[in-house]
Specification:
Length: 373
């Protein structure tokens, strides 16, 4: 079904002459890299907005960029869906639990694909960082972490699973190896001086984007944005809230005896996927594919039978965090209440605090996943 939707969205957007602006930006990262043109300057003759991805993304998108748009765009969406499917398939849960995750994420996946969003790969790389660490495949875990970092920085959160690794020094070594590889690769089709300059421009552009995001209607759809927009206190600084969130996020790591339990590890994965959207000014409606994956993982590992609280939260989360940007939600209500006050983040915030509470106070060996019973 996901492949069918991917093909439909790619072909439909091409045949109606509406190849999404995001795909045009992606394609020109490769073209600009070849021509050694700035990756972060506007090119309104080809696309709106500006690029926010690292120079290595030009290498990643190159197989699609050299194809005609209808093929490149369609294949891009198919790969997005397949990589996400594979990442969920690799989770250490039962087949039925995976099916539940697939269905919970489907609507948000379609929204992200409609916008040709790289967020689908971001969530996949984070999940695969964990699953490869769990399987003691540190070479590939490091690959996933550094690939995500060199494209969109978010991938660095894969190191949240560092303490679950049985070969920590090996993981660090391969991370350094892949970091060098991804740093150097763009130089092979351009030049070292140009690529180094582009890295400097990339970080400067991200700082500008962060400042713009703070007061943007369609950006900062996060806990940070919800607090600022719903209270009207737009002058509030983000860093105290981020520091507070980071402290809550880190507290469960004090329970070292829990590291070996699959449920604690999966809760950590769910917490990571939720945290990076709730505490990022760059969060937008299509970013919620990342959150929905975290919410779904949390839900399927809840003890059975489900409590009214867990059932309420997952239904609340699907309706108000997944449905709002789609036609499954009343347009007037979305544009009048949900979007202006970033209320899409509300269910995720409650679920994230619930996840942290469970990690802090529940014993994982009393609440095993079905696959370990």
């Amino acid at each position: 079904m996901w492949v069918s939707v991917s093909v439909f969205l790619g072909v439909f957007s091409s045949l109606t002459n509406r190849i999404h602006n995001n795909y045009q930006i992606y394609k020109y990262v490769f073209i600009n890299l070849l021509e050694q043109v700035s990756l972060y300057k506007p090119r309104p003759e080809f696309f709106d907005d500006v690029n926010h991805y690292g120079p290595f993304f030009g290498i990643l998108i190159s197989p699609f960029a050299i194809l005609p748009d209808i093929l490149g765009a369609t294949l891009w969406l198919v790969i997005l869906g397949l990589v996400f499917f594979y990442s969920i398939k690799e989770l250490p849960v039962t087949r039925l639990q995976k099916i539940a995750i697939f269905w919970i994420c489907t609507n948000s996946l379609i929204i992200a694909q409609t916008n040709f969003q790289f967020n689908i790969i971001t969530v996949s790389l984070i999940i695969l960082s964990y699953t490869n660490i769990k399987k003691e495949k540190d070479f590939w875990a490091a690959f996933m972490i550094m690939l995500g970092f060199f494209v969109k920085l978010y991938g660095i959160v894969g190191f949240a699973f560092f303490f679950f690794s049985k070969h920590k020094s090996r993981l660090l070594f391969w991370s350094l190896f892949w970091g060098i590889v991804f740093f150097v690769l763009p130089m092979l089709i351009s030049s070292p001086g140009y690529v180094i300059t582009q890295y400097k421009e990339w970080f400067a552009e991200l700082i500008i984007k962060n400042n713009v995001n703070n007061n943007s209607l369609h950006q900062n759809i996060s806990l940070l944005g919800m607090i600022r927009k719903s209270t009207g206190l737009l002058w509030l600084l983000n860093w105290p809230m981020i520091v507070g969130g980071a402290i809550f996020f880190a507290l469960p790591y004090l329970r070292i005896q829990e590291y070996k339990h699959a449920r604690f590890q999966l809760l950590t994965l769910a917490s990571v996927l939720t945290f990076i959207v709730l505490f990022s000014t760059g969060s937008e409606p299509s970013s919620y594919i990342i959150v929905l994956a975290g919410m779904a993982i949390w839900f399927v590992i809840q003890p059975r039978p489900h409590t009214w609280w867990s059932l309420f939260l997952i239904i609340f989360g699907i309706i108000f965090s997944s449905f709002p940007p789609s036609d499954l939600f009343p347009r007037a209500f979305y544009y009048r209440f949900i979007l202006p006050y970033a209320l899409q983040a509300l269910p995720c915030t409650i679920i994230w605090f619930t996840i942290v509470y469970e990690m802090l106070f529940q014993k994982s060996d009393n609440y095993l996943t079905d696959s370990h019973k």
